[in-house]
């Protein structure tokens, strides 16, 4: 899909988050108008004002992505304002404890609602429009945890998103609609605050989104340093069982989550 054509419109779900806002700015940089949706946050207004300064249009539609009615409203307002939807970026997501045993039922439900059902419902809502246009691009933000299962219900949600991306891509291929999956490793965000500033910024994911829109690919792992470990995990699952089945490794994985839970 050629990006930067005047009038192109993208919906970015989770626009107020670290990866979401970096993606919005990357879309602005290539001349794309953006519909900003997430639970209301002043960041949405800040991003909308940035669009005006570069001669683009932005529409803020606050929404709870756990509600189908809110998702339908986002799509309806986008069509009223722009009459088209060229791109959907599913960047909303939340984390959870790596330990399933230490995850509450409410957390289980929230992770699946936001990380898996949210993207499914958004794709379901925009696809009739894209099919009528006979063009479109969908980019889902997954995780390396969707390839190597070591993060409890979070891994499960990202495994699900990987499968969903594959099946939807095949379903709509004949309509000239592309579906790509970006799988980040650890990047700088509140979700990974314990790592401090040692991690690459969310811009690395945003740049991968633009690349996926311009030249679609099934999936793209960023940073590239994670590709070899993921290959090993896929080729030798028994080795991963041994390593991550170690009690000390499990304790270390869950240490930060336990500390945060104790604080709150």
Protein architecture, described:
With 264 residues, the protein is an alpha/beta fold. The chain has a single domain (9-226), classed as NAD(P)-binding Rossmann-like Domain (Rossmann fold, 3-Layer(aba) Sandwich), CATH 3.40.50. Helices cover 51% and strands 13% of the residues. It is built from nine helices and seven strands; from the N terminus they run E-H-E-H-E-H-E-H-E-H-E-H-E-H-H-H. The chain has helices at 18-29, 42-53, 68-82, 105-133, 152-172, 203-214, 227-235, 237-244, 247-263; strands spanning 9-13, 33-37, 58-60, 87-90, 136-141, 177-184, 219-222. It has a seven-stranded parallel β-sheet with strand order 3-2-1-4-5-6-7, sandwiched between helices. Helix 5 links the parallel strand 5 (136-141) and strand 6 (177-184). It is globular. It starts with 8 loop residues before the first strand and ends with a helix. The mean pLDDT is 92.
Short description, anyone?
With 264 residues, this protein is α/β, with parallel strands linked by helices. It is built from 9 helices and 7 strands. The protein has helices at 18-29, 42-53, 68-82, 105-133, 152-172, 203-214, 227-235, 237-244, 247-263, and strands at residues 9-13, 33-37, 58-60, 87-90, 136-141, 177-184, 219-222.
């Amino acid at each position: 899909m050629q990006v930067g054509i005047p009038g192109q419109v993208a919906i970015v779900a989770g626009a107020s988050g670290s990866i979401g806002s970096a993606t919005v700015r990357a879309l602005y940089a290539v001349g794309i108008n953006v519909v900003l949706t997430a639970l209301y946050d002043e960041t949405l207004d800040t991003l909308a004002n940035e669009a005006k300064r570069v001669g683009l249009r932005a529409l803020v539609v606050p929404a709870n992505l756990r509600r189908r009615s809110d998702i339908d409203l986002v799509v309806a307002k986008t069509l009223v304002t722009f009459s088209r939807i060229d791109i959907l970026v599913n960047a909303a997501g939340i984390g959870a404890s790596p330990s399933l045993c230490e995850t509450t039922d409410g957390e289980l439900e929230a992770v699946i609602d936001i990380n898996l059902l949210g993207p499914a419902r958004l794709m379901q809502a925009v696809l009739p429009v894209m099919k009528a246009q006979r063009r479109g691009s969908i980019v889902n933000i997954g995780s390396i945890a969707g390839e190597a299962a070591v993060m409890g219900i979070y891994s499960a949600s990202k495994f699900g998103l990987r499968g969903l991306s594959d099946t939807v891509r095949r379903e709509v291929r004949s309509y000239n609609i592309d579906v790509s999956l970006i799988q980040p490793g650890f990047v700088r965000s509140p979700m990974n605050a314990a790592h401090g500033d040692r991690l690459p910024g969310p811009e690395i994911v945003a740049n991968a989104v633009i690349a996926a829109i311009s030249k679609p690919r099934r999936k793209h792992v960023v940073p590239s340093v994670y590709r070899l470990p993921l290959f090993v995990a896929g080729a030798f699952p028994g080795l991963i069982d041994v390593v991550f089945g170690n009690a000390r490794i499990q304790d270390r994985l869950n240490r930060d989550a336990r500390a945060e839970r104790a604080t709150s």
